Amino acid sequence: MSDYHLSPLPSPRQSSGPLLVVIADGVGIAPEGPSNAVALANTPTLDALAAGPMSTTLKAHGVAVGLPTDDDMGNSEVGHNALGAGRIFAQGAKLVNAAIESGSIYTSTVWAAAMARVAEPVGGSGTLHVLGLHSDGNVHAHVDHLYNLLRRAAAEGVKNAVVHILLDGRDVDARSALLYIEATESVLAEINTGAEGANFRIGSGGGRMVITMDRYEADWSMVERGYHCHVNGKGRGFASAWDAVTTMYAESDLGDQDLAPFVIVDGDGVPVGRIGDGDSVIMSNFRGDRAIEISQAMEYSDFTAFDRGDHPDVYFAGMLQYDGDSKVPANYLVDPPAIDRTMSDYLCAEGVTSFAISETQKFGHVTYFWNGNRSGYVNADLETYVEIPSDVISFDQAPAMKAAEIADEAIRLLESGDCQFGRLNFANGDMVGHTGNLAATIEAMEALDTAVARLVEAIDSLGGILIYTADHGNADVMYKESNGVRSPVTSHTLNPVPFAIHDKTGNPNYSLESVPDAGLGNVAATVINLLGFGAPDFYEPSLVRFD
Q1: I want to staple 331 with a disulfide (CB 3.0 to 4.6 A). Which of 179, 317, 396, 487 is the partner?
Q2: What architecture is the 93-334 domain classified under in CATH?
Q3: pLDDT over threshold 60, residue 1
Q4: Among residues 15, 76, 135, 204, which one is catalytic?
Q5: How far apart, in whole angstroms, are the C-alpha atoms of residue 227 and residue 85?
Q6: CA dist 321 to 148, 288, 289, Å?
Q7: What's CA 134's distance to the chain center, in Å?
């Protein structure tokens, strides 16, 4: 790694204590109001940091993190990519949009292999299945990509196709599933009318937090329910997806993300969309974390996480490769961004010792995504990664999550003197915010404040520096109100996030620099500077200037 050399700053910071980056996941900055859990919570430590002399705000959505437009919400994956890489790479939907626009998605060998099984002109007799999050939230997936895949498949002679819909209610309005079902049924009707003998239909579905979309192996039972729903037709039977959702709406006040699995059945009660031998299955999600486990269940021959029964012979492909190191899935339609020369590469090359800590829900973000979509250590001799297991419950039941345990472990490593740099993620604002429970999210913010207060005290005692920031908003907008009716907002927000440097070492020889349109990509150069090095000249500019 000799080409990763950094030059020392001629006048580095005066203190030699450790540098700690605290990422408050899902904590954005919005106007005060009754729906802003961040503002409503009693958080004296976070408030003091955000109002300190070296504080500003950063962009954490849209083009600032590599997404197509500033109408696109940021997310933890692209946010941590930007934080760790120091510059912006085309991400998710932007990659897929470009591949669709250029047509490269349909000239790939993977698309050809999928069509070979299901397109009549090339001898295919199987059914095409498209599985993915069913909304235009543009965080994990977008229905426009689904529609493009279906129309192209029909144009290439596919006669049988089944859509398996994972209801959102998290990146979009909590009860918006019917809008997307209506739009999808219209597209399916268009295809069935325009292509002789075509039978394109919805086959199964359920809420994204109940089936299929687990992440970090936190709850394999979610994936098991989804697998058997999509593959074997196990679930409550309905004549249509519209009937399924309207019935479940009438039975409870649950949002879309929490609705039970369902299957569409014919007049005899037989599922119309089971996945069988000879079929092709495409996962239309472009974001990786919640697509990895179902991909493994679909394609691994030696799968052991749960009993699949008689697993069918299918050709499985992802929209992207969701884990580049473990090569999941083996087949994918769009190449992921190639992120190199991350902050971790440079710091390890300079011998900087470090740690990364989070609970399971965000552990991959401070490791895999921070390191440019690469699993494992950059240098195991210099780095310590600590994962604290998350509770397998709805997070509004325990809003503190593992904030105290994360702080405990960080303080232990800081006080050991073995690490010059640390980074950690508190998941509270995001994971509790996603439940739509305002009171619980306020409690989550207060637990976060308590944990950060302990870290500030520890850093001060060690003569170090603490950086406080976030990867995107969420807890800052918990509901919207229209005509006197409140609707929960469980999605991320478009709001900026805080950035603050806490340094009580006395008269630091640096100050906050005013950087136009500063975003998460500016943090890496800042960290490198505060560790005593000049940042690579192709990184986004540092947020500090040395005297």
Answers
A1: 317
A2: 3-Layer(aba) Sandwich (3.40)
A3: no
A4: 76
A5: 35
A6: 19, 7, 11
A7: 16
